[in-house]
Amino acid sequence: MTAEPRTVRTKAEETLAAEFAAARDALPGGERVRERRDAAFSLFERFGLPHRRVEAWKYTDLRALLRTAAPLAGPATPDLLAPVAEDDPIAGLDRAQLVVANGVYRPELSDLDGVEGVTVEALADVAKNAPDRIGRLFEDSDDVVMALNTALFAGGVYVKVAADAKPARPLEVVYLTAAAEPVSVVCRSVVEVGANASMRLIESFRGPAGIAYQVNALTELDIGLGAKVTWSRVQTESEAAQHLASFVARVAGNATLDHLAVNRGAALSRWQGFVMIEGRGARTGFYGATMLAGTEHGDNALVVRHVAPDSTSTELFKNVVDGRATGAFQGMIAVERDAQKTDAKMMTRALLLSDEAQFASKPELEIFADDVRCGHGATAGDIDQTMLFYLMSRGLPRKEAERLLIESFLDEAIDAIDDEPVAEALKGIVSGWLERRGAAT
Q1: Is 60 exceeded by the pLDDT of residue 6?
Q2: Per-residue confidence band for 1, with pLDDT thresholds at 50, 70 and 90
Q3: Residue ranges per structural domain of the chain
Q4: In sequence order, what are the residues at sequence separation of 6 or more whose Cβ sits closer than 8 angstroms to the Cβ of residue 389?
Q5: Whose CA, among 41, 114, 142, 289, lies 20 to 30 Å from 89?
Q6: Distances from the Cα of 110 to the Cα of 106, 167, 173, 381, 415, angstroms
Q7: C-alpha dihedral, 17 to 22 to 24 to 27, nearest 10°
Q8: How many C-beta neighbours within 10 Å does residue 385 have?
């Protein structure tokens, strides 16, 4: 950590401490898990919530933004769960589903047809019976928000894809928050993909409109030799929600990971990824399509660390910022000494649709090998007036011309995952956001 310990607690920090003390003994897992929870929470007690003096959180001062901490959510009741479950932003996509409501896996609401070779367990059961299968990819001392997830997670799912499996349908892990008043949901997914398997995974988050609920989600993904994974992340939380998410992945030799994050919604959202490319010949692609409006704040941060030689990574993040919204992207490509022949590139682009919109970009390279090809770039600006004039000169109204340009800007990132059915479903989220924008202007 880069910040000095602090003893003065904010109201939110005091509430978090009280919630942990009250819930500790009831949270899933045996004595070993409780020991890890205690150690993780001690990190939070020492440093508090991250703030702008913590470099990784420079653009999202959580200590200032998180004024209150909502109480931990209880079980999701059917009357509150039904409207959230029905409001499906990718309803037209054929896929299997795992439903996690208020952090608890609900097998009776899930559908595993068409995903042969995939086994699923409630993470609460794994925490009790096989705790070593959780938290293997990171240290809780790396990040306070991840440490809070370890301390407070109520459950989630453990997904194992067998070696050589090639399920016919994509599998969606659906995280639903169901509440009539502000609550906090702390959840986790642990996914293991066996050697030479091929798997399409989707992770989605949504909750009730008008409720200032809070989500802390963490995903662990371990990809075996020669496996191929596409991972689409859909964040469509309600306009009052606060959403914090962490993604930790390990990629073995000759494996492929394509990760797409579509972000629309939440008053405050932050996604942070930590990826370790450990095998020769591995390839990763990270793509983002973020839409911000009103007074929303959205932050994406990604660290890709190349450990093995002859590996490739590509990063393309597209951001559209309207109204008085603020956004940020922090990205680092780190190449260790033995990772010769690394080919890595990073690009972030921001489209500012109003004079008050703001976006900050901070791409970085950290290279210790001497035979690599690495680069990064960042751009920000408004709609191309030449292109806008061209479309309007062909008879399109201004709003329609703007819509087409914004849509094509974001679609480039969505199309990069090379999965047409999933991409088309996700483009519907972009279209819906643009329709609401057009109605409001």
Answers
A1: no
A2: very low
A3: 71-383
A4: none
A5: 114
A6: 7, 16, 9, 43, 28
A7: -120
A8: 8
